[in-house]
Amino acid sequence: MLKMSGMQCVRSNLRTIRRAxxxxxxxxxxxxxxxxxxxxxxxxDGGGEHAGERFSHARTVVGVATIGLALVAADxxxxxxxxxxAAGLGNLQEIRRQVEAAKEGxxxxxxxxxxxxxxxxxxxxAAAANDQPAAVAELIRLGARPDLQEKYAGASAAAQQxxxxxxxAMQRREDEFCASMxxxxxxxxxxxxHYAALADSAGSAAALLDAGADPTARDHAGRRALHxxxxxxxxxxxxxxxxxxxxxxxxxxxxxxxxxxxxxQRLKQFIVGQTAAIETVAAAxxxxxxxxxDEEHPLVFLFLGSSGIGKTELAKQLARYMHRDDPAAFIRLxxxxxxxxxxxxxxxxxxxxxxGHEEGGQLTRALARRADAVVxxxxxxxxxxxxxxxxxxxxxEGRLTDGKGKLIECKNAVFVMTSNLAxxxxxxxxxxLRREAEAKAxxxxxxxxxxxxEDPATPEEAAGGEALEVSRTFKDxxxxxxxKRHFGRDEFLGRINEIVxxxxxxxxxxxxxxxxxxxxxxxxxxxxxxxxxxxxxxxLGALADGYDVHYGARSIKHEVERRLVNQLALAAxxxxxxxxxxxxxxxxxxxxxxxxxAPRQTDYTPLDLAV
Length: 611
What we know:
The chain is an alpha/beta fold. It has helices spanning 6-29, 43-75, 80-89, 92-104, 123-129, 133-141, 155-162, 166-176, 192-198, 202-210, 234-260, 263-270, 275-289, 311-322, 344-348, 362-369, 385-397, 423-446, 459-464, 472-487, 490-494, 507-529, 537-544, 553-573; strands at 299-304, 330-334, 374-378, 399-401, 407-409, 414-419, 498-501, 532-535, 582-588, 591-597, 605-606. It starts with 5 loop residues before the first helix and ends in a 5-residue tail after the last strand. The model is unreliable at 1-10, 31-44, 69-74 and 449-464 (pLDDT under 50).
């Protein structure tokens, strides 16, 4: 027998019901006894009684037909409760019927088999949580994706989001998902494989893994499905086997990407200058990733240099490179918030009996989610000595015990500390290195013959891309005594793998910074005000003159805002910048001037913004 779609079934039943309605109408016009002589010899009252009976009979038939029509139509409309209960009970016929009904209803929220429950889960998750391997396989066949993540954050959060009472949300979770799971708890980020592991459903796990489910996917707490599997169990063995294969594939893909796109190349796309710092960090990370480092200790860096020179940005880009832009893999802690002794509890969690014990610490919570994260301790020199003692244990053993006594292993993490200690000394030393490099470049340029009449490179340009090397004498005689005097312990400094020096920008690097800042403002002017912003080459040099070695790239940003953006804002306030116009920025004697070209005109008109 040929299978009919949902709408074909509806049309067939509609035709049947229409025939029943027509038959009822015919019956209403015929005698109730079928003799063909209704009312003969019975008088007028008898005929009226028979007519009333015929009318009542017809009305009953029509009513029944109408109810039947409503039931048939309802039976072929998508019903959320029936869909998810069918997934939990393993009712394959009902699952197919509901998916077909969702198709006819033209569902817009993804694939029909992936329709989410109002409170956040999918039918595939419900089937896996209730140990229904056949339902899991059928949903996958119907197009369900195995790696969708749960959005149910607990009864209270779900109720608030949907405008329900928490008890109603709990009841729906139990009825339409799984009665054996805690409906109060948050399951954010769980996949169907997480639920299969918790339910110890080897069949469901096998179906999901065969369909391409990622066994390394993490939930909101940073845990993989393997974390919830019973030990020992066939489900656990299955996940371990697929995890090993998956990680091998990821490692091979990452190795190939590193060969094609080395870390230095990635960092130089986002970091201006600091060639020596980039090369030092990249070499240490390469040793760790390729198995040529001490596996018993995490990788620890100390970034030294002036403010606004790229220390924090280098740590961010390192995390993006190592963990494929996963935001949870970068942990930033401002150590100026840990200047008091009691704030150690805020870092690792309060001990039992103290307020906040159940919440845990900022660092321990983050490392529990991603033990291989890049952790940035910003301005570490401002932290209390007791906090440094905790960090010493972390750097030395690669493990940390939180306030609850739980041990967190983080030997695969990368720890980066930044500090402004010795910033002035490093800045002055860097400027001296720049002058020496420019002098050497000038001597080399004197004997250089240009080709085809090209202008020779300036000393600044010739020395700008050179990696300046900080001498061992300067490190030992100037920087290390400052660090030892502040931290007061050699063992803390001894656990640092690399002390990385960030030197002041060269003239060419400053021009690059100004160019990037102007491009950023040009994009904002186009997006927000429909104004095109252009500039001449002399503008870069005029703005670069505002560089302050103590504030790094921030001084360039502030200079652009003070000298250019302020003029643009004033011109807009006076009505001189209409939408669609073009602004040209020029420089003369170190001063910036604006000229405006109105839409559909060819000439620029200088702006006089004097008060």
